């Protein structure tokens, strides 16, 4: 029986909602209580002090270190925090913090991840770039951190309620292996657990079918050599834990029809298969974007009341457009950037993600059905990431 079968997840987090509207709520107080005076996860002696990749999973409101040998492995029922620390010059460190929200994570987990991301940024003296990452639409920067990303069904044990059910006669797991259309790294490969049915097959990718007593590899007729090689690595990792027979079949072989039958397609006559990829690629280029469709907004409480106003539209961003006393949101159509001035008020700094996601919801209501999948990233004046600096005209 697969670890996630026979389990029901608590109330699922709606990815379209703002996960910082929970600040000040009962959840907020529970998180602070569990955090106590200090967060052990940030105080291991290396976080923020040396380059590296650090990953934590949210488990029962706590930040739990994720094993280094499982870097790149995620569960769709969980939320994670990923810190990438890198060198900038000889004596300076840069930081990117990603809070990754699985498509079936709970509201508690998502809210805790967002809150703890802010806490980690404060631990790093507020100089980090923060990224909200959605499972269905990862940013180039996130994908580039891993040579392989594996997304499996299920989640942390404390996040599930067991349901008594008759155990299935056999385990059936189907993994889809495909190249992610990201400019971040040319060999980024996604391994994604999909519904074990013939309707999940696609000519362009490789699929690994685990039937418990045997593993089958189905190579789509248009898959790439890289996808074949990565699928072989996946199978190798799977067979280390259990010794079972493995059979590799090309879609062009007549015997490959056996896999379609195993997935319930005995009566299906088609010889070509297409299925939407579970992760969307960039909505378009995530670098410069199209200035003609860009919008720059200012978030300010200078009048005593927070206001959010359009500053310019359809023009390139210039350094002179930004004021260090406020927070600005820059929508380039493909993603939303937030720039925080060093002299912005505490209220403006606290509101940025809430306002950013409220703006995304507004776009959603304006017939942009995929607006909620937009990557959102916040940079701080003087510590802007290379991706943001590419947007600023000379």
From TrEMBL:
SMART domains per the UniProt record, alphabetical: GEL (SM00262)
GO CC list: actin cytoskeleton; cytoplasm; endomembrane system
Source species of the chain: Aspergillus avenaceus
InterPro entries in alphabetical order: ADF-H/Gelsolin-like_dom_sf, Gelsolin-like_dom, Gelsolin-like_dom_sf, Villin/Gelsolin
Gene3D superfamilies per the UniProt record, alphabetical: Severin
Keywords of the record: Membrane
Region (Disordered): 271-301
Domain Gelsolin-like, first and last residues per copy: 65-142, 192-239, 317-389
GO molecular function, one term: actin filament binding
The name this protein goes by in its record: Actin depolymerizing protein
Location within or outside the cell: Endomembrane system
Record GO biological process: actin polymerization or depolymerization
């Amino acid at each position: 029986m697969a670890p996630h079968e026979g389990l029901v997840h608590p109330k699922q987090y709606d990815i379209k909602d703002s996960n910082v509207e929970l600040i000040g709520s009962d959840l907020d107080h529970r998180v602070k209580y569990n955090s106590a005076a200090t967060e052990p996860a940030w105080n291991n002696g290396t976080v923020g002090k040396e380059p590296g990749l650090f990953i934590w999973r949210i488990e029962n409101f706590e930040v739990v270190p994720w094993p280094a040998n499982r870097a790149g492995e995620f569960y769709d029922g969980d939320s994670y925090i990923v810190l990438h620390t890198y060198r900038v010059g000889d004596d300076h460190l840069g930081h990117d913090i990603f809070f990754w929200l699985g498509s079936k994570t709970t509201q508690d987990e998502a809210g805790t991840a967002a809150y703890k991301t802010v806490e980690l940024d404060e631990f790093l003296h507020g100089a980090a770039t923060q990224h909200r990452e959605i499972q269905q639409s990862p940013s180039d920067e996130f994908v580039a951190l891993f040579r392989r990303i594996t997304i499996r069904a299920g989640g942390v044990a404390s996040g599930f309620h067991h349901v008594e059910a008759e155990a299935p006669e056999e385990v059936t797991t189907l993994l889809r292996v495909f190249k992610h259309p990201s400019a971040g790294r040319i060999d980024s490969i996604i391994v994604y657990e999909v519904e074990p049915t013939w309707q999940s097959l696609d000519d362009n990718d490789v699929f690994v079918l685990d039937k418990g007593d045997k593993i089958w590899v189905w190579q789509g007729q248009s898959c790439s050599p890289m996808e074949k090689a990565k699928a072989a690595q996946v199978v190798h990792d799977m067979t280390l834990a259990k010794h079972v027979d493995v059979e590799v079949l090309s879609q062009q072989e007549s015997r490959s029809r056996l896999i379609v039958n195993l997935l319930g397609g005995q009566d299906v006559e088609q010889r070509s298969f297409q299925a939407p990829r579970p992760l969307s690629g960039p909505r378009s280029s995530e670098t410069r974007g199209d200035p003609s469709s860009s919008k720059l907004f200012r978030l300010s409480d200078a009048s005593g009341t927070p206001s959010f106003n359009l500053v310019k539209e359809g023009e390139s961003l210039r350094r002179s457009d930004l004021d260090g006393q406020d927070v600005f949101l820059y929508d380039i159509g493909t993603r939303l950037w937030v720039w925080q001035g060093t002299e912005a008020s505490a209220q403006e700094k606290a509101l940025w993600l809430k306002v950013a996601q409220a703006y995304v919801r507004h776009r959603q209501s304006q017939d942009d059905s995929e607006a909620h999948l937009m990557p959102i990233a916040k940079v701080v004046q003087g510590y802007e990431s290379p991706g943001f600096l590419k947007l600023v005209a000379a």
